[in-house]
């Protein structure tokens, strides 16, 4: 059945996601403060105007503070029983606060961050990790199936964001481990292709080694083969690592490797060459350095 959808935040991710919903036959009204648009989507003049008649409101915004501000505006304008689906990557506390506010206003809420990047958004192959009631998840599920290829209902509100930052904490730590091992291997005179051949089929294998190898010319094509142009930007990795450390702080969890990864990506992005580079550009960074 055709749904009336409002889509707030038509950026690199939001625009192609909204376009895919429109292409599938849903009626989509968009809004973005930057005035961006998406194919097949009609823009409203304000966010409250966009959401007024919507069965489902989807947000795809930069961070938790902006999400809270947008929620403040749109929740009072949504129709009773409608579902607010936030697909942004935000802190767990903001996700839970917005869900509570929506539920208090008689709405349903789902936090549903994604993995898969802009390629996944364009091709409709994202993975959604969702938190909220089963009822709310079931309403949003057909839309996840259009915008993505997998949707996991992880638990109550905030569970989607929790899954996202735990996954990306592993990703950041693993990328660093893979890059420092390559740099060590180089200094030991080991050929990079041999290093890949062994590790990718041994117990050190990982997604970062096998699917996104940080060494150019080795393994499947990755941003390393394209001058480390993102891909997944180092700044975005840093954002997610910071969210993981904020969550660890608020949940009193000991995450020393995540903490170290956050510190290293901070240094990389803020005082080294990492800004604007793919997060796998940690390899040339290590190559340039010695132990001291
Ligand atoms: P983006 O900066 O391209 O898009 C965000 C959009 O939100 C912008 O167009 C901006 O104008 C708009 N916006 C900001 N404030 C607004 C407001 N108050 N009302 C309406 N619109 C507003 O970012 P993106 O790459 O599309 O990422 C969006 C979210 O998805 C982020 O939380 C990001 O962490 C997450 N994410 C991104 C990727 C990726 O590869 N780009 C992958 C997974 C998850």
UniProtKB/TrEMBL annotation:
The name of this protein is: 3-hydroxyisobutyrate dehydrogenase
- Sequence ranges assigned to domain 6-phosphogluconate dehydrogenase NADP-binding in this UniProt record: 4-155
Supply the source organism for this entry. Answer: Thalassobius vesicularis
Where would I find the 3-hydroxyisobutyrate dehydrogenase-like NAD-binding domain in this sequence? 158-283
The entry assigns this protein to a family as follows: Belongs to the HIBADH-related family.
